[in-house]
Structures are given as structure tokens and as C-alpha cells.
Amino acid sequence: MTSAEAAAAVALSSSSSLETDSASVPETAGTAAAAEVAAAAAARMGPGARVSKAALATKLLSLSGVFAVHKPKGPTSAELLNRLKEKLLAEAGMPSPEWTKRKKQTLKIGHGGTLDSAARGVLVIGIGRGTKMLTSMLSGSKRYIAIGELGKATDTLDSTGKVTEEKPYDQITQEDIEGILQKFTGNIMQVPPLYSALKKDGQRLSTLVKRGEVVEAKPARPVTVYSLSLQNFQPPFFTLDVECGGGFYIRSLVSDIGKELSSCANVLELTRTKQGPFTLEEHALPEDRWTIDDIAQSLEHCSSLLPAELALKKPKPEESGERGLSCEYITLNETKGGDGEIKTC
After folding, report:
1. Most buried residue among 118, 295, 315, 332 by CB atoms closer than 10 A?
2. Is omega for the bond preceding 95 within 30 degrees of 0, making it cis?
3. Structure pTM?
4. pLDDT in tens, 85-118
């Protein structure tokens, strides 16, 4: 599993239409107008709700920066982003018929460093101008705790796949594993798994494989492993602590370790404990804290963790499509009847 598997953008369904804003939109555009129309929308709910919804809508559109959420096992990174987005829009009373009367009411939100559905841990989110910082986050270091299972190989290289091979592992000792880890540390070459978000002719390799098409493996490419250690060994299971750079696949690492030991292996459990300066324990918001106020507080806290120059860097489309960057530009406008579209950058 890698933080570099791209997450597909998802369409947002609502009573009013959302359409792609492909032009560059100033982050401050429409904030004053946003408060005006939000107040009108909240007026129907009574005096108390009027102030609350108007203030929340304005605050939501003013949020800008990078924070982290805790992704559980189950949903894809794209599905989790969509869930977060819908919770924020619902809390602010957006979109509503009043919002569609104004153009350029834009909420920009995205994630960088995709986690597979079977994995859990830190998922970095950019909102407002923070979406420009996600590419820099992708190239930074990431830390994982991975539990591998010896003796079984699968087509996906993890426990969600179909078993393709079984080999003995009884002869493997803790010293054997520790003795080969140095081969996978430093600047190494790694072949990405077929089940990945890397693309061929504009389509994900995983999508092509699931269709039954013959797909050739991508060539080995340079990756970096900063540290790699064995934390526990209870055959057939072994636990690794891995710190790596961008573009690295934990699934490929575990599979390669199995082969090096003259057996085979797959990933049983995977947790991302850190991405850049964000840790799972200190910074990742659980779903019950996905509120506008909690995110605003997190943005303020996390701003001190990032170098100021990151905010000036813009993501490169040719890099982000393959390395797991997903940004969604949600524009509330007066067009009605069309399907909502989300722009992936």
C-alpha cells in the first residue's frame, strides 16, 4: 500500500446543482456575499438559527490550510473526503436555493497521500489555499506500522486479495528477517503493485486488472526508505515500523521481503501513523470532530507545523494525477438541472 495511490474525485449529489469551476478562483471571492445569502437561508429557521447558520457558512468558506483526519478501515480516501465535505456543507446549511443565486461561492477541499480502503491512519486534508500545499505533503516522509503474513501471496499483495501462492515459512527466524531489512533501506528500486492507482492510457491499473485485461507491471522506480525495523515476530506474522518517502508501496515491500526469505507474504494490517508533521495520536481528527469549529482550531494549531513557503507552492497536474493528490472545487451557482461535477487536479 502506498500513500501515492490516486483517489478518484466523487460527484456531490444535492438538491441544487454543483458544477466544475475550472478557472482560478480567488480564495476570498464571494465571502461577503456568502454571509448575505447564508443569512437569508437561515432566516427561515428562526432568530437563533439565523445567526448560527450565517456565521458557520461564512466561517466554512474562510477556512484555509492543511489539517489531518483519522481514516478508519473500510472507506476509500475519496469516499472519506466526500463524507467530510457533506458533513461540513450540511452543518453550514449549504447548498440551498439561496446559495444558487450567487456565482463563485467556492469551497475548495482535497486530500493528498491516498490510503487504501483496508488501511487506517493519518489522511492529510487541504482546504481553501491549503489545496496548493498538498503536492508538497506528498513528497514528504510518511510512517507506517505494517503487519505482514508469511506463507501466502495474493493478487493485491494484501489480505483483501485472492490467494495466488502458498509456501512454507516454518524455517524463517526473527534473525532471518532482521538480517535482510538492510537490503530494503535507503535509496532502492521498487516495482509498484498491479492493483494501484497508477495509470495506463488514462485508466487506473487496478481498474484494468479487475476487468480481466492483461496488464504489464510498471518498471521499477527509485524510492527511499529512511528507516525500517522489525517490531514483533510471531510466525506467520511479523510487524514492521517503516518510514519512507513519496511513491513508496508498503504492499510491495512486504511481498519483496517474503520473496527474499524464499517464501511469500502479504499485508494483513496497515496503519499510517505519521505524514509529514502530522501524527495519528496528536493531530488526526476522528469523525465525531469533523465540525467547522474543530477544523478551524486544528488549522490554527497545525499552521505552526508547516514551513511558510509551502503555501506558495502550487501542485503540478502531471505529478498529482499519479501520486495521489485529489482536489475538489465545489462551486455553488445559479445553474439548475445539471449533474454535479467535481474537478480533480
Report:
1. 332
2. yes
3. 0.73
4. 999 999 998 865 555 555 456 789 999 878 888 9
